[in-house]
Amino acid sequence: MNLNKKILLVFFLLLFTTKGESVENPKITLKLKYGEVKIELFKDIAPNHVERILELSKKGKYDGVAFHRVIDGFMAQTGDVQHGNTKNNFNPAMVGTGGSDLPDLKAEFNDVPHERGILSMARSQSPDSANSQFFICFDTHSHLDRQYTVFGKVTSGMEFVDQIKKGAPGSGSVDNPDIIEKITIEK
After folding, report:
1. What's the predicted TM-score (pTM) here?
2. Which residues share a beta bridge with 167?
3. What secondary structure does DSSP assign to 67-107, as a single string?
């Protein structure tokens, strides 16, 4: 086998396998009342955060959860499965302060920029405090880069994210918020 064929073979092997696993990232669909939002999850750069999103999604924990903080031109935040489920124990005074019953995640900061359509984990002051809450960027916000764990990107349906009800100027707090109707994991 000549050198060019060997290089090509190695390239294809690396392209389609990584330690016996497919390199294709998982995909989910976020169902909103406005339409479906398709998302690619970046398992290759944020494996623990992606696993958390998938685990909570499989259990239906995000279904009915409010977009409790939405700032026009900045981001839409959701994912408080403890206080933000509008169908089960919704607490408007506490939404945004909770997480899941799982332990917090160690940061997986990466070099993916916070641009329009990026999904990133919300956290408190501690870099290692992400749990279940996440946000979707409406625009580029480079001041968040390498400060929050980027774990996915909207691949279609961003026009539906743009329609999410915006919150109060400044705080982004939303009265009668829009919700995640359902998250499904693509096969």
Report:
1. 0.87
2. none
3. --EEETTTEEEE--TTT-BTTSS--TTTTTS---SSPPBPP
Strand extents, DSSP E, the chain:
27-32, 35-41, 69-71, 75-78, 118-121, 134-137, 150-156, 182-185
> What radius of gyration do the chain's Cα atoms show?
18
Note whether 79 and 132 are within 8 A (CB): yes
Cα–Cα dist 148/114, whole Å = 9
CA distances from 52 to 33, 37, 56, 101 (A): 24, 19, 6, 11
Q: Which amino acid is at 183?
A: I
Q: How far apart, in Å, are the Cα atoms of 133 and each of 8, 98, 125, 155?
A: 42, 8, 14, 20
> What is d(CA 99, CA 76) in angstroms, rounded to the nearest whole number?
17
CB 159 within 8 A of CB 88: no
The answer to whether 94 touches 66, Cβ cutoff 8 Å, is: no
Our CA dihedral for 2, 8, 11, 15, rounded to 10 degrees, sits at -140
Contact 78, 65 (CB under 8 A): yes
The mean per-residue pLDDT over the stretch 84-94 comes to 92
Structure tokens, 150: 């980027």
Torsions phi, psi for 173 (to 5 deg): -60, 130
41-79 pLDDT tens trace? 999 999 999 999 999 999 999 999 999 999 999 999 999
